[in-house]
Amino acid sequence: MQNLYFGDRGLPVQYVQLALSRAGYETRVDGMFGAETCEMLRRFLGEETCVVDQGAWRRLLPYLRGYERNGRREIRQFDFPIVPENVAYSSMLTEAIIDGLQTRYPFLETGSIGSSVMGKPVFWIGIGRGETQVFYNASFHANESITTPILLKFAEDYARAYIGGDNLLGIPATELFNRYRLFLVPMVNPDGVDLANRMLRSGSYYRQAKRIGADFPDIPFPTGWKANIEGVDLNLQFPAGWENAKEIKYAMGYDRPAPRDYVGSAPLVAPESRAVYDFTRTHRFSLILAYHTQGQVIYWKYLDYEPKDSYAIAQYFGEVSGYTVEETPTESGYAGYKDWFIQDYNRPGYTIEAGEGENPLPMTQFSKIYEENIGILVGGMTQLEGK
Q1: What pLDDT, in 10s, does the model give residues 352-373?
Q2: 385 is a catalytic site residue
Q3: Using CB atoms within 10 A as the burial measure, which of 58, 80, 339, 375 is most buried?
Q4: Which of the residues 144, 230, 353, 372 is marked catalytic?
């Protein structure tokens, strides 16, 4: 992590403020390194300094992970929820949270499905030991990172309910755990998310992205960035009408690396999309959810494919969320992950466009979005019963 100084602003400052607040030093999480944050940092460190250097970060990071190590083996768990709802997300925060969740709930499986262009892990979480496998993913698009905590909070709520013998929407978590095996990939596009949320602000990849963005001045940089760090839209990379998607997007002017809508030189050339593809091929998913923003819409179909019970499940999702159920518009109707899954497996697959407004959606929407989607997240398992 970068050093921070008095007067700095941005997401890293929010993470410092979040950690200080969790440590008991009440601080506004506003991203401004002002006098209040400086004073609380001094108290926390016990030093007369207003610099967050690498030593300070080492002391702060346990309050993002939710635990600290006392020696090699002894772990002290903190009593706050690990998944924050008041800060934007990044690859660093996501990794810290997954580490914290797996440490607090050792029955969770965690790992990496592959790496991004910049070499960052694309993490997965596994919950349950049932035979029916279900897969949810989020943050294919860089400026849609509010979808990442949807899956992380669900993982935490599920794990807490399981260990406490509690229910999720009236269903015993132990029953879900024993019947289903749920896989989550909370951040498919870590490089792009870091760029869009201004965690990546220097280096050769940043300069390359800035040059790409300069060719598309109507798209705000970096907040309008949807692609991976090389300008490939990860949700236009799958072998399901890829040539159709290419024709449509080229006609729109996205015929080269771009902040959005460039299909790439061929299907699956982006390592992040390839990782999701390979992960899917090595499992037997009965249903997938791909989380995006925004529009409060559920897309359920690809061309004339209509997997058994897929429309009925979509209607259920619409009822529990209040979202509308629609077929994908033609201009977005090819080469997506959901499209490929339905085409190759003939099983239910859904794109969930959560929230409403202009991307990136503010974290002030998160609580409402999560409440709207909890029924979908549970129903993605339970609606397969007997189907």
Answers
A1: 999 999 999 999 999 999 999 9
A2: no
A3: 339
A4: 353
Tell me, yes or no, if the pTM score tops 0.85: yes
**370 is known as an active-site residue:** no
Q: What angle do CA 327, 340, 293 make, to 5 degrees?
A: 55
* 65, 99 Cβ separation under 8 angstroms: yes
DSSP H or E run through 295:
none
Tokens of 68: 């600290």
Tens-digit pLDDT profile for residues 237-293: 999 999 999 999 999 999 999 999 999 999 999 999 999 999 999 999 999 999 999
Distance CA 188, CA 276 (A): 8
Q: In degrees, to the nearest 5, what angle opens at C-alpha 213 toward C-alphas 295 and 340?
A: 50
Q: Residue 66, SS3?
A: coil
Q: What is the 3-state secondary structure (H, E, C) of 334-382?
A: CCCHHHHHHHHHCCCEEEEEECCCCCCCCHHHHHHHHHHHHHHHHHHHH
The pLDDT tens digits for 39-52 are: 999 999 999 989 99
The string over 40-79, giving b where at least 16 C-beta atoms fall within 10 Å of a residue's C-beta and e elsewhere, is bbeebbeeeebbbeeebbeebbbbbbbeeeeeeeeeeebe
CA angle 41/367/178 to nearest 5° reads 105
Kindly name the residue from 89, 254, 316, 334 that is annotated as catalytic: 334
> Tell me, what DSSP letter sits at residue 125?
E
What is the distance between the alpha carbons of residues 368 and 243, in angstroms, rounded to a whole number? 38
